[in-house]
Amino acid sequence: MEDFILKKESETNFEWKIRLCNAKLDKEIDYDWSELITILKLECSSDHLRKLSYAYKEFSAYINDKQKEKIIINNSEAKLTTEEDDFIHQLEEKIEKLEKERKKLQATKIEKNRNQRIESRFELLYENIKDAIETIEPPIFAPVYPTNMKQEHVVVMSDVHYGSTFVGVTNQYSREECVKRFNKLLGELIVYVKENKVSKIKLINGGDSLQGMLRISDVRMNDIPVVDALVEFSKIMIVFLNDLSKYCNVEYYHVNSANHTELRLLNASAGQMAVEDMEKIIVNYISDSLVSNERVSVNTQFNQDNIQFKILDYNVIALHGHQLNNVKTALRDLSDKYDKPFDFLILGHYHSGVEMVVGERKTYAKEVLVCPSFIGTCPYADKLMVGGKSTVKIHMFEEGKGRRRTENIVLN
CB neighbours (10 Å) of residue 30? Predict the structure, then answer.
């Protein structure tokens, strides 16, 4: 493929340009128009080159048709014999068959080259991430408070959108601001652990950890490439969990599928490839880096687009929330889907905090707990005149009584 795109010695510059443009139109090469502009060193937009190529091809076809008409006229004037007619007809059939076989071979090569390029890109992605992973030394642990078997403290956070950079009406965000908020959150949690004598914290991350590439507008908000953002965010979470473990045990649960981090391969639409998600890479990155820290456990057991675990004896399911059509009936629907009586549903995605009672057990309420966003109000929320503070919630659960209280940690 690389040899194909090079200019041949026998070609003029114009012939080279026409050959590559025709090859793109005939799908003989797997390059974008923007890539062809770079290769051909042109100074025009990709859309202009595409339209010009279609127009030239149509004009060339018109000239060829006219030439064929002249040949037919000349042949008829020459009064070809029956034998000559048959020979030309047979020759045309053979040429047509050869052309079909050539097209088949081209199609096979294009598909092979496309698959090789995709596989190579992802192999490089995983190799870069693997090289970046470093185990981190545990901190000097402080004594842990005695365990209260009848209570659990659950910290829920979501929608960090790391890599996004903007200045809004009531909020501004950047990679530096994100780090400041994690530092503030760490300080607030240390105070909470000491005041409430907490021995263990369950930390739930509801997804959309990266700004991602959901729309062109999202890419414009990205401060750095998405892969770089993935590595940086993972390291921030690793340091945060490691530092928090100095004061208590930490169980980390990270939702494995979200709309901003989903890899929509081969032009797949949203939700078609939910299992292909960068959140999984982040979780495993964190798990590998903290393998030496006995106070941090990282959940790596996933369902297709959700995680399921226990808070005390309560059955909990957590997912990002972009998959749901009706939040009010989601707990019941998910219980039916998995044939499991879920007591609590934890969601992110909606960027505002809600505690919604959707049913009851004998001694406690069944609830949907929607987590506010870590990023806070963004320009899109400003446009819609909706939004909320950058907030992380702490829910305290008690045996037989469900969720007993909730505290908000405002970070901006």
Answer: 18
* b/e map 189-208, b = 16+ CB within 10 Å: bbebbeeeebbbbbbbbbbb
Domains and CATH numbers, the chain: 2-120 (no CATH), 133-410 (3.60.21.10)
Cα–Cα distance measured from residue 145 to residue 142, given in angstroms and rounded to the nearest whole number: 10
Write out the two tokens for 219: 């890419």
Beta bridge partner(s), residue 307: 318
**Residue 366 has what DSSP assignment?**
E
Return the closest-CA partner of residue 259 out of 323, 176, 310: 323
H-state helical runs in 290-405: 327-338, 379-384
- Number of Cβ within 10 Å of residue 211's Cβ equals 28
Which residue, among 281, 253, 286, has the nearest Cα to 371 in the 3D structure? Answer: 253
The answer to whether the beta carbons of residues 335 and 341 sit under 8 Å apart is: yes
pLDDT of 272 over the 50 cut:
no
Order the strands of the 249-254 sheet from edge to edge: 296-298, 249-254, 200-205, 151-157, 391-398, 402-410
Question: Concatenated DSSP letters for 209-276?
Answer: -B-TTSSHHHHHHBSS-HHHHHHHHHHHHHHHHHHHTTTSEEEEEE-S--TTTB--GGGPPTTTTTTS
Mean pLDDT of the chain: 83
At 85-117, the pLDDT tens digits run 666 677 677 777 777 777 777 776 676 666 566
pLDDT tens, position by position, 12-53? 888 888 888 888 888 888 888 888 888 888 888 888 888 888
Surface-to-core class of residue 31, CB atoms within 10 Å of its CB (0-12 exposed, 13-18 middle, 19+ buried): middle
- pTM exceeds 0.90 for this model: no
